[in-house]
Design goal:
The complex is a heterodimer of chains A (about 110) and B (about 120). With about 110 residues, chain A is an all-beta fold. Chain A is about 0% helix and about 45% strand. Chain A starts with a strand and ends with a strand. Chain B has about 120 residues and is mostly beta strands. Chain B has one domain: Sandwich (Immunoglobulin-like), CATH 2.60.40.10. Chain B is built from no helices and eleven strands. In chain B, the strands form two sheets. In chain B, strands 2, 4, 5, 6, 9, 10 and 11 form a seven-stranded mixed beta sheet that branches. In chain B, strands 1-3-8-7 form a four-stranded antiparallel beta sheet, with no helix packed on it. Chains A and B meet through β6 and β10 of A and β5 and β10 of B.
Chain lengths: ~110, ~120
């Protein structure tokens, strides 16, 4: 079955340290992967999608089909990065998104 | 407002009560999605509309759940005879184009608590 796994429920790092939020997926077809972010008391919003290969707020993510991973990285964490991060999978032309359970990122001053 | 609007933001229902949750998508957005998010979990797909047509309701957990979007704009998710396991945040999202496409914009959700 298709699945998205975010193994860390909570990740706490110091300001200025590198951050890596892990995401693994299970899908045999051609996936489209997304990272969504939810800041405190705000709505879910798209952070980035793998097909656009862009860097948003210093975050990048590379789709590794061999490892079925789409880890989110940032070289130097900032306090304003503290939020819930969700990885989501779109399977081919199917419009449904399959979501991971989310990782809460806390950046310590 | 330019965003997706959901109301009410919070709803407490007694077990067995019917509830109706409203979603106002971004004007002109073709696609509308409902998701259910239980505590500590990611969102789970409930149903999808393209304009007024409900193209997929495979995620609705039981026949107590019903969604409509009669004029292709506002959508209502109705839950009949609520039960405690229905307690969750219900998220609505809309996107500009049809199913193959673009970024989905989310509302702030309705937190339903069934007591």
């Amino acid at each position: 079955a298709q699945r998205v796994t975010q193994p860390e429920k909570l990740l706490s790092v110091f300001k200025g340290a590198p951050v890596e939020l892990k995401c693994n997926y299970s899908y045999s077809g051609s996936p489209e992967l997304f990272w969504y972010v939810q800041y405190s008391r705000q709505r879910l919003q798209l952070l980035l999608r793998h097909i656009s290969r862009e860097s948003i707020k210093g975050f990048t993510a590379d789709l590794n089909k061999g490892e079925t991973s789409f880890h989110l990285k940032k070289p130097f964490a900032q306090e304003e990065d503290s939020a819930m991060y969700y990885c989501a999978l779109k399977m081919g032309s199917n419009y449904q998104l399959i979501w991971g359970a989310g990782t809460k990122l806390i950046i310590k001053p | 407002g330019a965003g997706v609007s959901q109301s009410p933001r919070y709803k407490v229902a007694k077990r067995g009560q019917d509830v109706a949750l409203r979603c106002d998508p971004i004007s002109g957005h073709v696609s509308l999605f409902w998701y259910q998010q239980a505590l500590g979990q990611g969102p789970e797909f409930l149903t999808y509309f393209q304009n007024e047509a409900q193209l997929d309701k495979s995620g609705l957990p039981s026949d107590r759940f019903f969604a409509e979007r009669p004029e292709g704009s506002v959508s209502t998710l109705k839950i009949q005879r609520t039960q405690q396991e229905d307690s969750a945040v219900y998220l609505c999202a809309s996107s500009k184009t049809g199913p193959s496409g673009t970024e989905a914009f989310f509302g702030q959700g309705t937190r339903l608590t069934v007591v």
